[in-house]
Sequence to fold (331 residues):
Amino acid sequence: MPYRCSRCDKQAIANIKYARLRLCREHLTTYIEKKVESILRKYKVLETTRRIVLAVSGGKDSMAMTWVLWRLSQRYPIKLLVTNIDLGIDGYSRRSSEIVRKYSQELGIDYIIVKLEDLLAYNIKSLSRLARRSTCSMCGVVKRYLLNLIALESKADYVALGHNLDDILAYSLKSFLSGDYISLVKFTPITKSIDGIAVGRLRPFYKVYEKEALLLALTNKVPFIVDECPLRPESSIEFHIKSFLNSIEEEKPGIKIQWINNLEKSLRDIQRNLDVGENLRVYKCSYCGLLSKSNICSFCNTTKRVLGRPLGAELRETIKRIIMVKNSPSI
Ligand code: SF4
Ligand code: ZN
Ligand code: ZN
Fold:
């Protein structure tokens, strides 16, 4: 039997068990938008930010995030720059980039699409083979580096990532179980910029369940690429953690939101202590000058080892030119 929305007379399309709400399309949208708006307001992003670079892969989360931030940009003075990196993965990358391009044009948001093969002469598969690294780990290095460069050169205040609540719990639990506590500290809704070398990160969907992001995209006709990246490992640790967490959520609705709230709070306390202490050592890469875990960043290190020279500084010049051309008034 169809249920009524808890907030109006329309038919409910979602049962949000942990909040004891049944919501129609309109109220589901408002419910999720409010979650995003409130986390961004809590960290004073909407009032103090000028430009946000959106990391958009074309998947449901990043596309739904684009839509929500675009709606917020009608009410707050934020400027958005959608960024997509074409990794050269068979037909998948081309299709993803096309979806991102079309949707950005439809919404009237500035966008930039960079092709890895144009920048390095290799696609992600060949690069990881040469580097003898797993494709996903190489992909992570390249995407993080490029997004930071694009954000720095376009003078953005933040890079927004489409990670949802389930992703963040899975990544943080994986870091915890691997003993990688330094990475764990990053999983806050927001990380600060470090002047001139790293642009801060935002996770607007920090409190949005994966299912909610999917529903938001479907009910608001947000296009996205349905197929998974063909290079995704068949059975990742994150996948198993998510299934495990979902089975607990089934038994105890709301446990995931409770955990993410606890995580947010504990990590903020840790970050505060790190900020005032002497513990946080910031390294700059000696080749490109950007944030690094040691004297050489992963990107320069890999390109030096695999392609014969560290390419960070050259790449920065290329990105600078691309952004300059993009911003120059057309004749
Ligand atoms: Fe990159 Fe791996 Fe994700 Fe594919 S699955 S986009 S290779 S991180
Ligand atoms: Zn309703
Ligand atoms: Zn470097």
In short: The mean pLDDT is 93. The first strand starts at residue 14 and ends at 16. The two ends are 61 Å apart (CA to CA).
